[in-house]
Amino acid sequence: MKCVNPLLLAGLLATASSVQASDLNQVVEKSSAINESAQKTQTKIDSIADSMQSRLQKFKTLNKEIDGLNVYNAQLDKQIKNQLDEMNAINASMDQVSVIERQITPLMLRMITGLEQFVQLDVPFLPKERAERLSKLRAMMDRADVTSSEKFRRVLEAYQVEVDYGRTIEAYTALLNVDGQEREVDFLRIGRMELLYVTKDGSIAGSWDQASKKFVALEDTSISQIKKGIRIARKQLAPDMLSLPVHASE
Questions:
Q1: Distance of alpha carbon 158 from the chain centroid
Q2: What is the tens place of the pLDDT at every residue in 236-250?
Q3: Are 198 and 223 in contact (CB under 8 A)?
Q4: How far apart are CA 225 and CA 8, in angstroms?
Q5: How far does CA 140 lie from the centroid of its chain?
Q6: Per DSSP, which regions of the chain are E strands?
Q7: What is this structure's pTM?
Q8: What is the Cα–Cα distance from 155 to 140, expressed in whole angstroms?
């Protein structure tokens, strides 16, 4: 059996240890480099994954917006179709309105003429007020800034005023030629049946005679009843029976 030199053996062991330590260091360094590279790679992967997730979320959001826009556009299409239908209907109505306006203007003129004739033949109460109303209607018909509907409304309103005269009682003060002298008198209108007056001093009374188209004098016995009727018309007395001469209008 050969003997090994202890010094040689120690040297060999030291060399082996040095070689193993160097290899181990290299392995550790390479492992660290691999880990560092893996971490960088993982970071990139995480970044890409986050980016993809964000893009996916945006994609889903955009899809929802597109779906909403599709629904909105479909609704707009319906509204536009309805509006087009309404426009067609309005155009047709405008054509009809033009025809009606051409027909209604002569009708209104005839109505005003008829009302003027009626007032001329009627009991002559409130002559100034009624004449002014008719004059305003005539002037209105020549105005371009008043619509046909408004003109027609005012003509009907004038007719309604005349109708109301026939079922109301009214008292008013005006000037009247009495026995060749212009005097202030109180008038009493009872519908269209009677138009009476009494002078302010209560000395003379009269009644409109539709047949002769003039006022005729009344007896003094009627004066108190006329005054009573005037007070009733002015709501100074409660409604009560009156005894008055009546000249019924035709």
A1: 26
A2: 999 888 888 766 544
A3: yes
A4: 167
A5: 25
A6: 169-178, 181-190, 194-199, 205-209, 214-217
A7: 0.59
A8: 10
